[in-house]
């Protein structure tokens, strides 16, 4: 009988910032001898397929065996094609009602039809409440991954304690505005409107709070929870978990070629997971700029700005008089089309590069990049740290406020932009922050600190480093269970 490879089924939450690190994990597993089935929603599967021109490579959307033993499959999220996937209360409700059943069927089909039975299930903590039951039923060993920071996970994990201590209302939604100091080690106090579940209307927030609670409850029973972070970055909070519920940092989950000095390459050989097509020509533009001169601006996959915010921000960037690369997604503006301030594109054409989606890791690792104006999504934060790039923060929602507090107050590797009462970022605010990070005394210290963390992150994933050791024991447990 031949050697049968272990077969892991991976299930991310259906959003860009969750799919990317899950795919990094998939590629690592495959390097370590696994076969991986990667489960997207039909909606995202079609988007990724289209954005990355997979049809041109002769692939069909039904079932995509791309390469390296990773197979992309998909199931319905239960919503209609025209429904918004950024209404998270609606999306999570629908997933919980529909995806569990389809997922069950998928696992049964794999086990009935294929030579490679499912040997383990690795799910995003944010889909645990509907995806882990089947593992119990069929005794499939399972693990969960937190694609966010350990601090975010600690907040979720401690919800029941915080409710018992009277620090959180039992439905997660505060009646009065206040700062909450939830006395977890190293955790900066947070304004009550800035918890990760505070998205949408009060009703939505309550739905998301209870969804989070159900996920955390489901994760409590399983053997391993791994997290896309590293020990030196979040040691205090990581060490605060009780022995029986330890969270193992295995990050930064970033393809190794970005750590090997092979920078600014346009073709990484990785499986593309972007919802938008990457505009690779920005790398050539970066090649022409001076070292550490360019401001990189990206607000991730979900941020939406109103027209005034967008306009003032564009003028702020212009006022810096420095070269910049700005990712302006086709849905960044809450209206219909992107309207730049009058004459803007003409005035900045010699020093500004505008793209609708960038190869972010290649950009951040490019020697021309000086700083990153970011919404503080966890992947962007970790990617910036891994490339030693200081940040200027404009958080928008979910865990981004907490990430921002860590960047500015705990690690001190960036500055926060402060909006006026109307949520507008004054152009002077942007100009001043850029100057402070790039030329002030503050900036020198900020850059020193972020470079130190970059080294710690790289050491963590090297042979013998803390994340590498944790990943290996996770792998052994997963292979042998
Ligand atoms: N990203 C990218 N190109 C862009 C902007 C973002 O490839 O132009 C990637 C980025 O590298 C990161 C992900 O999209 O891996 C965004 O995740 P993050 O957690 O930062 O933010 P979210 O989109 O979840 O708000």
TrEMBL record:
<dbReference type="InterPro" id="IPR058980">
    <property type="entry name" value="Glyco_transf_N"/>
</dbReference>
<dbReference type="InterPro" id="IPR002213">
    <property type="entry name" value="UDP_glucos_trans"/>
</dbReference>
<dbReference type="GO" id="GO:0080043">
    <property type="term" value="F:quercetin 3-O-glucosyltransferase activity"/>
</dbReference>
<dbReference type="Pfam" id="PF00201">
    <property type="entry name" value="UDPGT"/>
</dbReference>
<feature type="domain" description="Glycosyltransferase N-terminal">
    <location>
        <begin position="9"/>
        <end position="46"/>
    </location>
</feature>
<dbReference type="InterPro" id="IPR035595">
    <property type="entry name" value="UDP_glycos_trans_CS"/>
</dbReference>
<keyword id="KW-0328">Glycosyltransferase</keyword>
<dbReference type="Pfam" id="PF26168">
    <property type="entry name" value="Glyco_transf_N"/>
</dbReference>
<comment type="similarity">
    <text>Belongs to the UDP-glycosyltransferase family.</text>
</comment>
<protein>
    <recommendedName>
        <fullName>Glycosyltransferase</fullName>
        <ecNumber>2.4.1.-</ecNumber>
    </recommendedName>
</protein>
<keyword id="KW-0808">Transferase</keyword>
<dbReference type="GO" id="GO:0080044">
    <property type="term" value="F:quercetin 7-O-glucosyltransferase activity"/>
</dbReference>
């Amino acid at each position: 009988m031949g050697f049968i490879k272990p077969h892991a089924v991976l299930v991310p939450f259906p959003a860009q910032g969750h799919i990317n690190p899950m795919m990094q994990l998939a590629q690592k597993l495959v390097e370590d001898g696994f076969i991986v089935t990667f489960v997207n929603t039909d909606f995202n599967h079609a988007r990724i397929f289209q954005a990355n021109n997979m049809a041109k490579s002769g692939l069909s959307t039904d079932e995509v065996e791309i390469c390296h033993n990773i197979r992309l499959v998909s199931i319905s999220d239960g919503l209609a094609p025209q429904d918004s996937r950024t209404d998270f209360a609606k999306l999570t409700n629908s997933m919980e009602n529909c995806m569990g059943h389809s997922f069950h069927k998928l696992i049964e089909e794999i086990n009935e039809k294929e030579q490679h039975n499912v040997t383990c299930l690795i799910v995003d903590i944010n889909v645990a409440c509907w995806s882990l039951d089947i593992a119990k039923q069929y005794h499939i060993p399972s693990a969960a991954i937190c694609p966010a920071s350990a601090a975010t996970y600690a907040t979720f994990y401690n919800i029941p304690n915080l409710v018992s201590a009277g620090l959180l209302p039992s439905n997660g939604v505060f009646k009065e505005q206040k700062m909450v100091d939830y006395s977890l080690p190293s955790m900066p106090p947070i304004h009550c409107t800035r918890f990760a579940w505070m998205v949408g209307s009060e009703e939505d927030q309550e739905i998301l709070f209870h969804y989070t609670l159900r996920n955390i409850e489901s994760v409590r029973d399983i053997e391993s929870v791994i997290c896309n972070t590293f020990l030196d970055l979040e040691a205090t909070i990581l060490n605060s978990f009780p022995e029986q519920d330890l969270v193992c940092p295995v990050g930064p989950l970033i393809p190794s070629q970005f750590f090997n000095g092979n920078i600014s390459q346009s073709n990484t050989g990785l499986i593309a997971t972007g919802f938008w097509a990457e505009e690779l020509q920005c790398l050539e533009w970066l090649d022409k700029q001076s070292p550490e001169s360019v401001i990189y601006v990206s607000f991730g996959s979900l941020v939406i700005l109103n027209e005034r915010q967008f306009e003032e921000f564009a003028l702020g960037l212009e006022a810096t008089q420095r070269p910049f690369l700005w990712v302006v997604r086709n849905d960044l503006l809450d209206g219909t089309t992107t309207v730049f301030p009058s004459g803007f594109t003409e005035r900045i054409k010699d020093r500004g590069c505008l793209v609708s989606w960038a190869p972010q890791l290649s950009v951040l690792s490019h020697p021309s990049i000086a700083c990153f104006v970011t919404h503080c999504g966890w992947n962007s934060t970790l990617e910036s740290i891994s490339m030693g790039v200081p940040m200027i923060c404009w958080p928008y929602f979910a865990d981004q406020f907490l990430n921002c507090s860590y960047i500015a107050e705990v690690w001190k590797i960036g500055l926060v932009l402060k909006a006026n009462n109307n949520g507008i970022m004054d152009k002077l605010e942007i100009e001043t922050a850029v100057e402070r990070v790039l030329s002030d005394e503050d900036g020198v210290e900020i850059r020193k600190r972020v470079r130190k963390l970059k080294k710690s992150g790289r050491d963590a994933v090297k042979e013998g480093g803390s994340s590498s050791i944790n990943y290996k024991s996770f792998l052994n447990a997963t292979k042998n269970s």
